[in-house]
Amino acid sequence: MKRKIQRKKNKEVTLSDIVENEIKFNGLRQGFSKALNKFSKNLKYKNSIQHSDLTNIPFITIDGEDSKDFDDAVWSEYNKKQTKIMIAIADVSFYVEKGDLIDIEAKKRGNSFYFPNKVIPMLPEELSNNLCSLVPKKKRKSIVLEVDLENGKVKKFKFYRAVIKSIARLTYQEAENIFLEKNKNNKLFSIILNLFNTFKVLQENSKKRNKISFDPEEYIVQTDNEKDINLIKKKKLESYKVIEEFMVLANTIVGHYLKRNNIKSVFRNHEKPPVEKTKILKEIISVYNLNHSGTFNSQSDFNKIIEMLKENKLSFLSDMLLRSQSRAFYSTENKGHFGLSLDYYVHFTSPIRRYSDLQVHRDLIDCYFLKKKKSRIEFTDHLNIQEKKADSIERVIFDIASSYHLKKFRNYEFKGFIDSVENFGVFIKAINFPFSGLARYRSFKYQYEKVNEENYKLGQVVKFKIKKINNRNGKILLFKVKKLEHDYKK
């Protein structure tokens, strides 16, 4: 089946056309049955005696501007020697019981699918955007992790099934602004300040254990009027990292607890990169004469080359470091997380949008609250397949959207670097633009030289132009490729 974007006669292709075409092409499940929607709406009458009252804790949520499903809320009280952290995660498992109508459908989907202009949720809207979402000023059932840090290290932790009430819904930009403005009259300033100070402690712990500090450039697809598709570089805000560190802490503690109790839950594994993938990094070291002799069997080897690339103004090559990594996956066997430099890791913090997290919640509740030590072995292959599908669809949509965006730059001379060398041509990744393309060797002939794979090296900086754009699949052909020997730092 070939992709063919449907559009109305004499109309420009819109972002909605691209997204809807991919949804149809991949046969994604959309909407929910009347029976399931009716079932989910009746859940608001479900009462609990299991949840204690933690509505006195001034939790806040920090998410993206368009977010509606708020899985997590955070609070902390910072002190140089002793710090208390509380992380509340939506208690989806209270509403979605194993084997019920919603559970069966959620397991089939595996995860929510996020697109630039819409979401296909894993759970019905009544749950994802309402009952389970930690919206402000509303009482919501949660699993709360309380952590005490002493001199930066975890001294003790405790879990609650509790009712919380978030006092504010902030975007990442709003949280960042409150922190930077240092306005003590802002009622949220002390809460934000505590979160940022606690983040510094958690970040220092990450550095000590040698978490790999990838910091790639990210782009998002935007459209003002549905016709004009633009790609915007995502801002690098500290507030993103604040929430990331809090979530990593929660996922690590839960993973360690389940492993210590011999529960075969759904672990999130990330293994060392295979030797064949690290060969491309050794080629970069050779091309740029970098003083790096590591074997890339350790996180410190990666952090060292990341710093070298920054020092030599070669940070654009960081994408190749990401490409060298193994793909993370779900399994009932714990194998640790290489990138985060952790021995135990699960996904626990997003049960509204990931079935893996919902299963981890059930295992934690059985073991911690109900004292059941019975392992529940889940089928994880399906979760890995659904995650790959979501990633693939997201990438295709981005590539096709990029191809329409690039129509504005047909005669532009781009700068990029060799991303892959093949016997028929080279793949080039643009610098300061989020796309890659293929330049076949035969298109180089205007340079009056014999051109083949021996002439070009991985990571080498070049200039090029776009020859042809395939808007159906986002593939781009390049030509007029020129080596840049000396001005790659400009």
Beta-sheet strand percentage?
15-25%
Distance between the termini: 45 Å
Largest sheet: 5 strands, mixed
Principal-axes shape call: globular
What is the CA-atom radius of gyration, in angstroms?
Answer: 24 Å
Low-confidence stretches: none
What structural category do the secondary elements indicate? alpha+beta
- What would the average pLDDT be, to the nearest integer? 91
The count of strands amounts to: 18
Count of alpha and pi helical runs: 13
Describe this structure in words.
The chain has three domains: 41-206 and 238-267 and 331-383, no CATH class; 275-323, no CATH class; 410-483, OB fold (Dihydrolipoamide Acetyltransferase, E2P). The mean pLDDT is 91. It is built from 13 helices and 18 strands. It is α+β, with helices and mostly antiparallel strands. The protein has helices at residues 15-25, 34-41, 92-95, 101-109, 125-131, 172-181, 189-208, 238-260, 275-287, 299-311, 318-323, 355-369, 381-405; strands at residues 52-53, 60-63, 72-77, 82-90, 113-114, 119-120, 139-150, 153-165, 168-171, 219-223, 229-233, 267-269, 329-331, 414-421, 425-430, 436-440, 461-469, 476-483. Helices cover 33% and strands 22% of the residues.
